[in-house]
Amino acid sequence: MERKLFIIMLLSLMAMGAIDFKAQDFRHKHEPREQRMFCLSDEKFTILYNKVKNASFDDRKMDLIEVASLGAFYSCEQCASIMSIFSFGDKKLAALRLMAPRIIDPHRAYLIYDKLTFQSEKDEAARIIGGCGKHR
Q1: Quick one: pLDDT at residue 135?
Q2: Is 11 helix (H, G, I), strand (E, B) or coil?
């Protein structure tokens, strides 16, 4: 039963991403680059946040983030919120690695750094976010 629920959650996130993909494709064709990248709406982010938070295991949480990241962009605030679901820095950084290429406002990365405890984790987060900027 739990496996079926997980599959349904993944499919719903994929559908949410597909809808966003169509909107992104339209914006790509009709808007300048600076106006194309929009993070998830508050409503869609709340859905994602609750699904990740309520997932039973960290592996499933990461799977949900990975699937959502196929078609979604995030603000640093949204990224930090997802990271706060995890207790340990290594899991927070793993979530960041999945979301970082889709962050639209890297100049607000301090919101992400505030969710990390140790300076080494903050340095790694800076490397992750900085490395993604080369591909934008």
Answers
A1: 46
A2: helix
